[in-house]
Every structure is written in C-alpha cells, then in structure tokens.
Amino acid sequence: MKKTAIIVTGILLLGVLNAGAQSKAGADYFAGKWSVLFKGTPNGDARMLFLLEQKNDSIAGVAQDTTGAEISKLTDVTLKDNEIAFSFTAQGYNVNLLLTRKDEDHVTGSLMNMFDAEGERRK
After folding, report:
1. What is the pTM of this model?
2. Class of domain 26-122
C-alpha cells in the first residue's frame, strides 16, 4: 500500500512539474522587443527592431530602426501558435514579414517571401 501511494505521488509530482514547464505560445510568446536581421536585401543586410505588445489575444506594435526611433506602426497582424505575420512601411514601401518560432528567444522567417530573416528577443 505504501508503494502504491509513493508511485501515485511521484506521478502527480511529475505531472505538476511538466505543466509548469510548458512554453509560451501565440501572443504570449511574441510579445516583447525583437531584433531582426534581414539578409541579402539590395542594400545589404539590414537590422530592425520590432516592439510587439500583447492586446488581448492579439499583437500590436511598431517597427523601429536600430536606435529605437519609430519607423512605422504594424498593420495586418495575423497570429498563430508559433507564427506571426504583419506588414509595415519601410522607405515608402509597404512590406510584410513572417516570423516563425525557432526556440524560446529566437525566430526565423522571411521579408516579402524574398529575404531571409533571423531574430532574437531583446531582454
């Protein structure tokens, strides 16, 4: 009887620990400040910052240059568990960006489906 109680307690403890280790998804994951590098653009590699704020179950935010000056507000935001897509204006052009979760603090994606993007969360 004691062995059964110990086994049941152990299983419950593992379940509780596993539930606490679940990673964030959707708006919870993408909220924050992201530094994104765009590779191979006509002007060479370029870096931008994206400040993403959680609004209920969605995201709102702005695109910034590397000094933190606002370039554009984000529009057309669509959010899935491990993916976010949005549009913004850069150098007079409306461009879109798709980012996919790589791990807790990194994303990969594409700008306009033409240029690779790699991003990391800024703390």
Report:
1. 0.80
2. mainly beta
